[in-house]
Amino acid sequence: MKEFYKQLLENNKEWVEKSLALDPNYFADLAKGQTPPLLWIGCSDSRVPANEIIGAKPGEVFVHRNIANMVVHSDMNMLSVLDYAVNVLKVKHVIVCGHYGCGGVKAAMGNMSVGIIDNWIRHIKDEYRLHDKYLNSIEDETERFNAFVEINAKEQVYNLAKTSIVQSAWKNGQELMLHGWVYGLNSGFVTDLNVNIASNDELDDVYQLSNL
Q1: How far apart are CA 16 and CA 92, in angstroms?
Q2: Model confidence over 40-91: pLDDT tens digits?
């Protein structure tokens, strides 16, 4: 266990040395501030690293991660990240990226209790209930699982669009587009789910806030 920890520190030193060898001002420039064009909302899964997937450098992606890449309207952590990204950093894109093989989505499809996360997963179960006719019509279990991963990512994009933070930005004429992706663990490729929202016109009237 100690050797693993020591190796982490050694890896950091090597990374610093390599970065400085390429650019002596690398860290000095990073320390001046950040102006990332993108907010990434992804899963906490260790196999889904935001920067590496899209070939981004440090400073180019503002990141929020949680179990199953959820956008829950009462989650102050997520809302704080979103508010800072939109209103301070002025990001132009927000990507919700799910991934095939997501353990959180898989758990939501079953009835096994896995601890306190049961309360978080319940939000995903609510989505299954909304799409149960379609999902239950898919006989192959793997295909049904993959379909639900995609549905979950799409629903989170719409959840983003429903927030007062995003709607206020749109009303003020701010350039902001929301996207839904799914990452393939076994391929490395992302799938664009073709849910790209740049205004609240695609939302039901009940979610459109008119007095911002």
Answers
A1: 30
A2: 999 999 999 999 999 999 999 999 999 999 999 999 999 999 999 999 999 9
State yes or no: is 102 an active-site residue: yes
User: Of the listed 43, 64, 97, 179, which one is catalytic?
Assistant: 43
pTM across the whole model: 0.94
The secondary element (H helix, E strand) that includes residue 41 is strand 38-43
Judge whether 73 counts as a catalytic residue. no
**Residue 190 to residues 62, 140, 142, 186, Cα–Cα distance (Å):** 18, 22, 18, 11
Distance of alpha carbon 170 from alpha carbon 167, whole angstroms = 5
* Active site (annotated) includes residue 122: no
Question: Around Cβ 185, how many Cβ atoms within 10 Å?
Answer: 12
**Structure token digits, residue 16:** 């610093």
From 45, 97, 123, 179, active-site residue: 45
Total Cβ atoms within 10 A of residue 8:
8
Tell me, yes or no, if 97 is annotated catalytic: no
pLDDT (0 to 100) of residue 207 = 78
Contact 69, 43 (CB under 8 A): yes
Section 192-200 average pLDDT: 94
Residue of 64, 99, 123, 179 marked active site: 99
From the candidates 93, 102, 123, 179, give the one annotated as an active-site residue.
Answer: 102
Q: Helices (H) and strands (E) in the chain — how many of each?
A: 9, 5
